[in-house]
Amino acid sequence: MKQAVFHSPFGPFSVVEEGGLITRIDWASRRSDPTPLLREACRQLGEYFAGERQVFDLPLDFGAGFQEQMRRAMFAIPYGETRTYGDLARDLGRPAQAIGQACGANPIPILIPCHRVLGASSLGGFSAPGGVETKVALLKLEGAGGLLI
């Protein structure tokens, strides 16, 4: 497992690579031993936070089974747009509670944009430091601020 520390507007986090795939973002800064893939991930994250990138082009670990379906569904939500837990529940034929749990278990936030998934009448949660405030900041960065409750 290799890691690279990325310094975001929300503080440092580690991007983790295993077996040629990005497998995790950890919200704590760890050691940095970047590979070419991790350097590319950090470059793309830098472009995203600068407002210059809307789609990530990286090999991501989407998992398997329902987790894979859910992560691919989140990944497909366009930049600057949101979906509700109910929307994804309907699309995937699962209860909204399962969708919420899968969002909360997303190991690669930002790159797999779980911040774009909202509750029907609330913002839902977010795993980053700052929680929902960070989720709102990411949505505003993407120009989705007008969609917020």
Please supply descriptive tags for the structure shown above.
149 residues, alpha+beta, Arc Repressor Mutant, subunit A, 2 domains, three-stranded antiparallel sheet, 5 helices, 17% strand, globular
Estimate the global geometry from the Cα principal axes.
Answer: globular
Distance between the termini: 39 Å
The count of helical stretches stands at 5
Mean pLDDT: 90
Q: Find the CATH topology of the largest domain.
A: Arc Repressor Mutant, subunit A
Give a description of the structure:
With 149 residues, the protein is of the alpha+beta class. The protein folds into 2 domains: 48 residues, no CATH class; 83 residues, Arc Repressor Mutant, subunit A (Orthogonal Bundle). Helix content is 35%, strand content 17%. The strands form 2 sheets. Strands 1-2-3 form a 3-stranded antiparallel sheet, covered by helices on one side. A two-stranded parallel sheet has the order 4-5. Strand 1 and strand 2 form a beta hairpin. The chain is globular, with a radius of gyration of 15 Å. The mean pLDDT is 90.
